[in-house]
Amino acid sequence: MSLREAGQTNQDEGTQPISPLNAALFNKTSSLEYQETTPAIPFEFIQNRQDSTESELSTTYSQSQSEAYQKLMCRAPIASLDCMEEFSGTTAQLDFGRSTSLGSNPAIPVRNNATTTPGLRYKNLGKSGLRVSNVGLGTWPIFSPGVSEDQAEAILRLAVDSGINLFDLSEAHSGTRAEIELGKIIQKAGWKRTSYIITTKIYWSTKSEERGLSRKHIIESVQASLQRLQLSYIDIVLVHKADSMCPMEEIVRAMNYVISQGWSMYWGTARWSPVEIMEAYTNCRQFNCVTPIVEQAEYHMFCREKAELYLPEMYNKIGVGFMAWGPLSMCLGDTQNGERLWLPKGSFKTKSQSYSWTEDEVNKEERLEETRRMYDKARDISNLAEKLGCNAMQLSIAWSLKHEPVQCLLLGATSAEQLHQSLQALQLLPRLSTGVMLEIERILDNKPVRPPPISTLALR
Q1: Which regions span the lipid bilayer (predicted)?
Q2: pTM of the entire predicted model
Q3: 343, 349, 329: which is closest to 381 by C-alpha?
Q4: The CATH number of the domain where 306 resides is what?
Q5: Which of 3, 115, 157, 192 is most buried, judged by most C-beta within 10 A?
Q6: Is 165 a residue whose pLDDT tops 80?
């Protein structure tokens, strides 16, 4: 008997038409196996499809239930929007289905005509509610003597159009000119104050006339920066290097006063040791002051220990985020073959001269050997970058952003073209697979390892 005949028979008897399939499902004497494998089909669904057979009806109902379930799951809360952005339309031009293996597959060319910046993300800085772009603009090379005002304005406009919302100022590198010029450009462009984030530093140096991080120096420095920037407040004030001659209580109380006056929203540190950051946090908790939210430190392929071992611990314990700089602080070195390779400036730190000429000779040989090893690593990294279809600088930027502790990476540029090329490195992130990262680790061979704990009993 077909479904139509069964329904007609039930209607003639004055009862509600029921399908034999549903009758078997709701019958207490039906087999358990049949109930578990075949779902109950509502009467309304059967009445609208009376021309279908039992198998077609069951298949159609299963498909409709599956579609309804998928729609319901799409309305569920998303745990991480950053993960979903990897599959958004901005990255549709990249080939995600193709794994990049060394030397086998041809490299995907990096786009040069991007109107938006694929790979740009916005993250919370530290455990605060302030969301910053994962790439920030360091202004120390932009306002250097060799860059004109028109070039600096073009760089800033390109950064804003690309989605960058953080601008970092450093009095130690560019002096007070950076704050003055940036303030003029902001006023000329008419950008909304809520659309960008300004970070400036209170720099302490033994060569400066205004020495120390006293309450007087901190308050006067913040007020002077506000006047030069022509702004009512600064988003983040960073204390550049700690002052061992000033009590930590005075520093944290002064920063808390700056925030309570509305001159700054947050404060952080730059080039502080983990011990100094923990001491500042402890004093903030003791005296009920605002705690720092970020530490700005150097991080690249040849400087990894602090960023990978200690700053993630600071984030998990006290909520201090990590703002990195360094991938572009490179210099070019000439080899014997006439090639030019990129090398970090901080890789060859001169060791202190001793009073013994024999020790100086040994240190000289060690530095030469270290230079040779560094050149070999740089050459291998450059060759790997060629296989990936980019240059070594772009690979260095993508490698830094690949590490989870980096919440914001500062990039500098002396021209709009250089900034555009640096931003193209964001497209490399999906192609830095596990195999590529392992190959980079093999080349560098400098993964930091935490030293074993020292027992106090063994020292006695």
Answers
A1: none
A2: 0.71
A3: 343
A4: 3.20.20.100
A5: 3
A6: yes
* Cα–Cα distance, 200 to 183 (Å, whole number): 12
Determine, yes or no, domain membership for 17: no
Q: Which of 136-145, 173-182, 225-234 has the highest mean pLDDT?
A: 225-234
Let me know if residue 172 belongs to a domain: yes
Q: Integer distance in angstroms from the first to the last C-alpha of the chain?
A: 94
As for how many domains the chain has, the answer is 1
The number of beta carbons lying within 10 Å of the beta carbon of residue 1 is 8
Residue 402, in any domain of the structure: yes
Read off φ and ψ for residue 391, nearest 5 degrees. -100, 175
Q: What is the DSSP letter of 403?
A: S
Distance CA 133, CA 119 (A): 10
Q: Strand 131-133 to strand 122-124: parallel, antiparallel, or no bridges (unpaired)? A: antiparallel
How crowded is residue 348: how many other Cβ atoms within 10 Å of its Cβ? Answer: 15
Q: How confident is the model at residue 64 (pLDDT cuts 50, 70, 90)?
A: low
Look at residue 363 in the predicted model and tell me its pLDDT.
Answer: 67
Mean pLDDT of 352-375: 64
Task: Show the tokens assigned to 66.
Answer: 């599956």
pLDDT value for 239: 95
Work out the average pLDDT over 274-289.
97
3-class DSSP string for 312-338: HHHHHHHCCEEEEECCCCEEEEECCCC
**Residue 211 resides in a domain:** yes
Angle at which helix 357-387 crosses helix 434-444, to 10 degrees, equals 160
How far is it, in rounded angstroms, from Cα 237 to Cα 293? 10
By residue count, the chain amounts to 460
Residue with tokens 């399939």: 21
**The domain containing residue 291 runs over which residues?**
122-329+395-431
Q: Is residue 21 pLDDT above 50, yes or no?
A: no
Strand 122-124 to strand 330-334: parallel, antiparallel, or no bridges (unpaired)?
A: unpaired
